[in-house]
């Protein structure tokens, strides 16, 4: 994780703003069917761990998208604010809502097996299928 001060961002209408001090500078893309339904394409996110603070929380809507995760959005403008793992409150923040994307590196893609054929990123990235991703979270070494 990159710890270069405080990273900030906001939704389109600025009713919700966020800050974090533990933002990773590695961007990941998720091609799962849910992410594509949610945003109309791959979800491009940065890992911000559990250290994310919000102003305007009354404007945040939460959608329970699975047993293990939920998605946050602005109730005013509809901007996607986060994908959050319930177990450890780990936030994945859409790269596009952050104020400064300088230094971001597009590093990995998940659910590559669900990516439709009509688009492709030119960047060389680490690619994982959905099964490979889930195996990573359920392996004994990830339980420590």
Which labels suit this protein?
single chain; mainly beta; Metal Binding Protein, Guanine Nucleotide Exchange Factor, Chain A; 8-stranded mixed beta sheet; 2 helices; 11 strands; globular
Amino- and carboxy-terminal Cα gap:
18 Å
Q: In sequence order, what are the helices and strands, one letter per element?
A: EEEHEEEEEEEEH
What is the CATH topology?
A: Metal Binding Protein, Guanine Nucleotide Exchange Factor, Chain A
| Cα-atom radius of gyration | 15 Å
Total domain modules: 1
Largest sheet: 8 strands, mixed
Q: Helix coverage percent of residues?
A: 10-25%
Give a written overview of the molecule.
- The chain is mostly beta strands.
- It has a single domain (7-143), classed as Metal Binding Protein, Guanine Nucleotide Exchange Factor, Chain A, CATH 2.170.150.
- The chain has helices spanning 33-39, 130-138; strands at residues 7-10, 17-20, 26-30, 43-47, 52-55, 60-63, 69-74, 80-85, 90-94, 105-110, 126-128.
- A hairpin with a 5-residue loop joins β7 and β8 (80-85).
- The longest helix is centred in the C-terminal third of the chain and has 9 residues, at 130-138.
- It is globular and about 35 Å long.
């Amino acid at each position: 994780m990159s710890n270069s001060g405080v990273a900030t961002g906001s939704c389109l209408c600025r009713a919700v703003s966020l800050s974090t001090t533990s933002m990773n500078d590695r961007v990941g893309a998720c091609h799962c069917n849910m992410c594509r339904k949610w945003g109309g394409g791959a979800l491009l996110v940065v890992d911000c761990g559990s250290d994310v603070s919000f102003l305007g929380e009354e404007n945040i809507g939460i959608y329970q998208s699975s047993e293990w995760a939920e998605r946050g959005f602005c109730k005013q403008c509809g901007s996607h604010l986060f994908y959050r793992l319930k177990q450890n409150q780990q936030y994945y923040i859409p790269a596009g809502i952050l104020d400064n994307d300088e230094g971001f590196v597009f590093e990995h893609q998940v659910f590559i097996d669900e990516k439709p054929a009509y688009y492709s990123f030119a960047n060389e990235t680490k690619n994982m299928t959905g099964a490979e991703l889930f195996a990573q979270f359920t392996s004994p070494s990830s339980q420590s």
